[in-house]
Amino acid sequence: MKHEVVIEDTDEGFQCDEKESVLAGMARLCRKGIPVGCRGGGCGVCKVQIISGSYMSCAMSRQHVSAEDESRGIVLACRIYPRSRLALRVLGKMRKSVHGGSPVPAGIDIEARP
C-alpha cells in the first residue's frame, strides 16, 4: 500500500510504498544533491523529524539518533517505512540539499542533538 509523504519544509509530496524506505521515495523526487549515504542507518545524513503519521522503523545507529531523539520523532529516512500519511521536516546534513541553503526556521534545531 502506498502512502503520501509530505516534506513540510518545501511543501513537496510523494507516494511511498510500505515496502520502500522514505529515503528511497525522497530520492525519486529527482532533486539534485539529496544525499543517500549508506542507506543502512549508519551514517546519519538522512535525518528527519516526523511531524505526523505512523511508520515502521528498523535499527538506527545511536551515534546519530539517540533514544530521546527517536521519542521526539527524529529518525533516519533510510530506516523508516510509512504506515500512513507522513509529514516530516528535514534535519542535519540533508537539510541544505532540500532547502537550497535557505535559513533555518526559528525554533528548529537542525542537528537535533543536545
Produce a short descriptive summary:
The protein is α+β, with helices and mostly antiparallel strands and 114 residues long. The chain contains 3 helices and 7 strands; from the N terminus they run E-E-H-E-E-H-E-E-E-H. Strand 1 and strand 2 form a beta hairpin.
Based on the model shown, name its key terms:
five-stranded mixed beta sheet; alpha+beta; 114 residues; 3 helices; 7 strands; 14% helix; Ubiquitin-like (UB roll)
Question: What does this entry look like structurally?
Answer:
The chain is of the alpha+beta class. The protein has a single domain (2-99), classed as Roll (Ubiquitin-like (UB roll)), CATH 3.10.20.30. It is built from three helices and seven strands; from the N terminus they run ββαββαβββα. It has helices at 22-27, 67-71, 95-99, and strands spanning 2-7, 12-17, 47-52, 55-57, 74-76, 80-82, 86-90. The protein has a five-stranded mixed sheet. The chain starts with a strand and ends in a 15-residue tail after the last helix.
